[in-house]
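Lab notebook, bench 4. We co-purified these components, and the gel suggests they stay together. Before we commit to crystallization screens, I want a quick structural picture of the whole thing.
Request: model the full complex, all chains together.
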Amino acid sequence: MQGVGFRPFVYRLATELGLNGWVRNTSTGLDIEVEGAVRSLEAFLERLEREKPPPAVVLAREVSRLAPAGFERFEILSSDGEETRTAAVLPDLATCRECLAELFDPADRRYRYPFTNCTLCGPRYSIIREIPYDRPNTTMQGFPLCPNCAREYHDPADRRFHAQPVACPACGPQLDAPIEQAAQVLEAGFIVALKGIGGYQLLVDALNEEAVVRLRRRKQREEKPFALLMRDLETVRRYCLVSKEEAALLESPAAPIVLLEPRPGHGIAPSVARRSPYLGVMLPYSPLHHLLAREFPRPLVATSGNRSDEPIAIDDAEARDRLGPIADFFLAHNRPIARPVDDSVVRLARRRESVLRRARGYAPLPIPVRSSLPPVLAVGAHLKNTVAIAVGRQVFVSQHIGDLDTLEARQNFERTIDDLCRLYRFRPELVACDMHPDYASTLWAHRSGLPVIAIQHHHAHVASCAAENDVRPPYLGIAWDGTGYGLDGAIWGGEIFLVEDGRIERIAHLRPFRLPGGEAAIRECRRAAMGVSFEAGLPLEGNPHIARMLERNVNSPSTTSVGRLFDAVASLAGVAHFNHFEGQAAMELEAAIGGGRTEEAYPLPAGDWAELIRRLRADIEAGVPAPPVAARFHNALVEWIVEVARASGVRQIIMSGGVFQNRYLTEHAAARLEALGFAVYTHQRVPANDGGIALGQAVLAARGYSYVPGRSG
Ligand code: ZN
Ligand code: ZN
Ligand code: FE
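Here is the predicted assembly.
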């Protein structure tokens, strides 16, 4: 928020509604925590926006539901200096209503100008090179203001007062090709590389199967779903089911990709999101996207401009080089991009926003934490990497960096660390990394020359979710994902921790099984299926070579991973046999439930899946269809959580890790637990997947990391 008199206004509004809590200034705006009746909280949010004092504007806001803190009054807190000294760097904001009106007003001097913006909207994080945030410190440096723009920029009454990226056709950036031509290329089924806000995107007609297949082939992306760009909300409704909350997410200033349920017979080319239960859809978020969407009104595939898993291209020459073999046409411009910022991905779960990939529109807004933290740099995990810095009572989590498999990705990782530290004038005294000795991020931490704390992967997952929900111990932490390095060197991923006084104890875990072929078993689900069958003493069907590996215990590491159990079940049920991308088989198994609803569950006593696998195999042989089989498996996991929660003696349950991107599992577990009186916390602002690891590492390293070693191994 910008403007004066905001804190007293917040104080009056909160006290009038009988809400307790606090408000405090930070570099980026205000932190407000309010507690009270749900209806009063809703009224507070609504009136905050509607009744704010006139000079104040809300540029971006994030709302999370936190654990109750038991405040007794409402207070205006003083800032403790640390936060106010950090730079105010805002995320990139989608085109506002007024700028949009000007864009299509033939009488306006910015008619059809693709770089229109104002104080309320436009690029921010993607154009800042240095702080303070002034035009010469942005990529707008090479565009001196014309007299008209200068007048707006210096007029306190103008909507563009001190809007750093302000520009017009006379003085601002220009396109290097006509939009109409790009539309014709798309119309003909060809691929366009568009220079967007945080990097290049690849676009293609989403209704043209042949064109989408061509993009997949050239981009070397086999299965991972593509995101869609649709011209307006009305168009989205034609293809997807959109709730009120989902519509609000689509139209928010962050304008993320929102995962939506497609309408039956929607007509989008099948190769856009083959076998995925969702379509990822976003609305135009820059004037350039709006102009193109008018010119080409059908849905467009809009995916990151890169080859398979490399970072998104931002440099023009590099983009021509790397994307040249993929794109048939380039629509670029001469405003440089300071850093790569991918499109964010969110979805609604438990009726609240849950971020799955945090980048454009969100980064670098900080996550507030309860107590002031020492300067820690957390370098995250390996997949879906992000990094984070702890600055006082705020943790700045970087934009999504991606998997650190390629050299380009690792360079981007290093650049992002330098960039965050430079922007916030941050000098880390400690580096937190994963315990996995071979992660590129871990290796970097040990090369940094700073003291290093290695944090167990699933401890970090749970701490991350606890931090963003402001949950204090004691609590139960369910950490389920595909892979993480365990304290005993095994592959963990089905862990349940009891967290008391900041000390973490592993009180339950999935019964271990072996993964024949190690890494290869992550891709091929049949291997996990053979691993559980072998362990359960069931006959082994499939490749005799793999069976021999199990029998001789060669190259078959032990795992407690729920993600791998999903793979095994997906394969045994005949639903999915490969993970072309992380979590694919699990996603397909969730989708397999379809409309089939059942309360029945397979047995999973104390995390022992042996009987579950026996029953499941018997069901499959008896011809039971996939929907009830998939549902009974999901329900078994829910019941196991309930069993451990009941025995634990604590009332707060945290669920983190990539497995909880599964909406059926998350919503059913939360509903069951809440009905029993437990308070349930899931991710909201940071991802449940490894994109959330850096936040957990930062808070654990900063607060003194301690766990119970060795027990219940
Ligand atoms: Zn605007
Ligand atoms: Zn101008
Ligand atoms: Fe993980």
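The mean pLDDT is 94. Worth comparing against the SEC data before the next meeting. Residues 179-348 form a domain with the DHBP synthase fold (CATH 3.90.870.10).
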